Amino acid sequence: MNLEDRVVASFDGAKDERFREIATSLVRHLHAFLADVQLTEDEWATAIDFLTRTGQLCDDKRQEFILLSDVLGASMAVIDINHPTGGRELASGPSTRAATESTVLGPFFVAGAPEFALGDDISGGAPGTPCHLSGTVTNTAGEPVPGAVLEIWQSDEDGRYDVQYADLDHARGRGRLRADGAGRYAFWSVHPEAYPIPDDGPVGELLAAAGRGPMRPAHVHFMVSAPGYRTLVTHVFTADSAHLDDDAVFGVKRPLIVDFERHEPCRAPDGRELAEPFHTARFDIVLAADR
Ligand code: BEZ
Ligand code: FE
Fold first, then answer.
1. Do 174 and 113 meet the contact criterion of CB atoms below 8 Å apart?
2. Ligand 1 within 6 A of 216 CB?
3. Which atom, in ligand 1's list, is nearest to the CA of 153?
4. Of 102, 149, 165, 256, whose CB count within 10 A is highest?
5. Nearest ligand 1 atom to alpha carbon 109
């Protein structure tokens, strides 16, 4: 038996069949990769050093391994495997629709965000142009999902999240809402802006070595949950943002790109009179049944 076959055979006694399947497939791909690139010992040492430093940067605030998974497209690949939207099968039915596409969670979600009523302003004083976001939460049959919980978080006009300000002691651009009896939601916040992912560690070195940028296009994060439905983790991207085509983490999906219409001072859709320019956008959300 050659080396690769002997390593694979060493997992024969594994009690957990799924573990054996994953471990042996990993060994096969790893050995094929090493042979493919004819890895040198110096390159092996560089890789070990890179992975060591990636791990050393991880703590309860920073997860450099998830960031590495994000920039390698592995996070999006796992999302695509586990969150099919049913778009193709459902397209033929008259009253059915595809579930909303999922995308990366990212490092800036914080559990326990402040609760708001529908129509409230969740900006918390974040700098930026006012922005009204509204839509519905329905299921794939087009029926409303009353009481769906929406967790929202986003960057401000400087492309920063509240948790990136060392001196800030309250949430900004972050909140939790409940859809009404007809599945409708609405809130005010500020227009989000594009921003760089944390690039001062090994992942930043990898991007620089590849000649890649760290930027993400402007977006608002949503996590939407309701009993009987799969929790949806997604974003809505602004259609006019830079970096829609070179998102550092490959998180953009076409159906998630929406026009954020700009208005000069006037009466907003919810009746509020604005003395400054503002944006409005509509993002309808479709939840998949929890199977
Ligand atoms: C974000 O959208 O917040 C994000 C996602 C992946 C990596 C870094 C940031
Ligand atoms: Fe983000």
1. yes
2. yes
3. 3
4. 102
5. 3
